[in-house]
Amino acid sequence: MTSSSFNDFLPTMISVQGGIFLMGSETGRDSEKPVREVLIDNFELAQIPVNQALWIAVMGENPSKFKGHFRPVERVSWDMVQQFIAKLNKELGESFRLPSEAEWEYAARGGVHLSDFLYAGSNRLEEVGWFHGNSHGETKPLGLKLPNALGFYDMSGNVWEWCQDKWHNHYKHAPLSSQAWETGDSVARVVRGGTWFDDSQYCQISFRSLYHPTLTHFNMGCRLSRTP
Predict the structure, then answer these.
(1) Bridge pairing between strands 225-226 and 43-46
(2) How does pLDDT run across 130-183, given as a tens digit for each residue?
(3) What is the pLDDT of residues 207-221, one digit of tens each?
(4) Is the model's pTM score more than 0.90?
(5) What is the pLDDT of residues 68-88, one digit of tens each?
């Protein structure tokens, strides 16, 4: 596969202007507290999660349960995603990476257009995401629902999105910047966004969960990011 073939399937990268926002939720779970002020640097984030066409172009195989070139790739572990990104970067001379958890939440909330929506772009999940109540038991092609204020699709529902960060049970002592939180004894990594399989509460912007970096499941995908 040539690098031009990779480019054919690359998602649009949206420039996100940095700013200050309050990360977490005072009314959420303990893992979403304490709410804290975080300073985000400028970054770029993919408009949609990685689709199966790009994964196949880079890796030569498709691990997904629900096949379709324009559906999100799933059944990919954090470790597999790191291998995918390394191979893509080597081929294209790029610097793609996973977003930090802070970057992910900032983008989902609309960046400088910060909102208090429960979900990425709306208080009505049906408008912006696929979840247990409307997915008919499968992932859906990307970009069919409404985007949020910055133009990002599928940040609530469809598939979990791996972040770079290690898991911590709360935000005490978390970085107050864009950087991923990679210190600590935890092996697990953070996922955000909820999935087609989940109830609506798991698709809320502030909700966070964890999985072992070697775990693959039919609701786990990824979204590319990079530093400009």
Answers:
(1) antiparallel
(2) 999 999 999 999 999 999 999 999 999 999 999 999 999 999 999 999 999 999
(3) 999 999 999 999 999
(4) yes
(5) 999 999 999 999 999 999 999
In angstroms, rounded to a whole number, what is the distance separating the alpha carbons of residues 154 and 121? Answer: 10
CB distance 169 to 184 below 8 Å: no
Scan for tokens 């609506």, then name that residue. 200
CATH label, 3-226, candidates 3.50.30.30, 3.40.640.10, 3.30.450.280, 3.90.1580.10 = 3.90.1580.10
Give whole-number Cα distances, 15 to 37, 105, 122, 221, in Å: 21, 15, 21, 21
d(CA 192, CA 116): 17
Q: Determine the Cα–Cα distance for residues 211 and 193; give it in Å rounded to an integer.
A: 13
In which residue are the tokens 């990268």 written? 13
Token couple for 22: 């309050």
* Residue 6 pLDDT: 74
Q: Are the C-beta atoms of 193 and 203 separated by less than 8 Å?
A: yes
- Tokens at 205, concatenated: 């912007």
- Measured CA to CA, the distance from residue 101 to residue 219 in angstroms comes to 18
Domain ranges of the chain: 3-226
Closest CA to 108 of 208, 26, 12: 208
100-117 burial, b at 16+ Cβ within 10 Å, e below that, comes to: bbbbbbbbbbbbeeebeb
DSSP H stretches of helix in the chain: 3-9, 52-59, 78-92, 101-108, 125-128
Neighbours of 222 (CB within 10 A): 28
